[in-house]
């Protein structure tokens, strides 16, 4: 087991990924993670550094040589473009992930403060960019789609679903939010990270609001995101003991 090598954490929104990145900062120096605020950011609030695909792929050879772990909301295919990477990801039960996404936007965006979760769900941009079979999209997007970021209105089909599953099977360490601690401990054992112990009490971006979600709305989410439901079931089969 070695801490050497280069890694790419495929961070799917609202799956506990921000918590994992915070734990990675306990293992690696700031400059070894992409994006680094003091190196890769442009301005004080540069969210683009976390999502812009052309910007990621245009990093200089000198900067790439410094990076030990790539993070951010990027599709799977960029890991193959960069090459020579050990990959990790965490996925989440789609209904729970969707509700968490909706609560996030209700919490952080003024225009949604007075909206119900269903009203936010019905916002076309929110639904298409952040909800609709989003986890499958992360793993099915290809360079030929010519999208600058994963937040795009990509319509899935069976062929894309099959591609997403094949790509997920290539990921070195797959975890699920519902068994997050196990994912972290697997990374610790496999890569020798956090030799003095890892803080499993760290949690970031947790919402405490008790906003109601009707059972019928949960059914609607499941129906609208059938590819993600099947994709999550496939992810569970990959981590289930054989």
Structural account:
A five-stranded parallel sheet has the order 2-3-1-4-5. The model has no long low-confidence stretch (mean pLDDT 93). With 242 residues, it is an alpha/beta fold. It has one domain: P-loop containing nucleotide triphosphate hydrolases (Rossmann fold, 3-Layer(aba) Sandwich). Helices cover 48% and strands 7% of the residues. It is built from 13 helices and five strands.
What are the key terms here?
242 residues; alpha/beta; Rossmann fold; 7% strand
Blueprint of the fold:
Blueprint lengths: L6 E4 L6 H11 L5 E2 L2 H4 L12 H5 L3 H6 L2 E2 L6 H6 L3 E6 L2 H15 L8 H5 L2 H8 L2 H7 L17 H13 L2 E4 L3 H12 L23 H10 L1 H14 L3
Parallel strand pairs: 1-3, 1-4, 2-3, 4-5
**Strands, count:** 5
Can you identify the CATH superfamily? Answer: P-loop containing nucleotide triphosphate hydrolases
CATH class: Alpha Beta
From the spread of the alpha carbons, the general shape counts as: globular
Report the major sheet.
5 strands, parallel
Radius of gyration: 18 Å
CATH topology type: Rossmann fold
What would you say the CATH architecture is? 3-Layer(aba) Sandwich
Which structural class best describes the helix and strand composition? alpha/beta
Q: Assembly state here?
A: single chain
Helix content: 40-55%
For the largest sheet, list the strands in their spatial order.
2-3-1-4-5
List low-pLDDT spans.
none
Strand content: 5-15%
Number of helix segments? Answer: 13
Instruction: Give the domain tally.
Output: 1
SSE pattern, N- to C-terminal: EHEHHHEHEHHHHHEHHH
The averaged pLDDT comes out at: 93
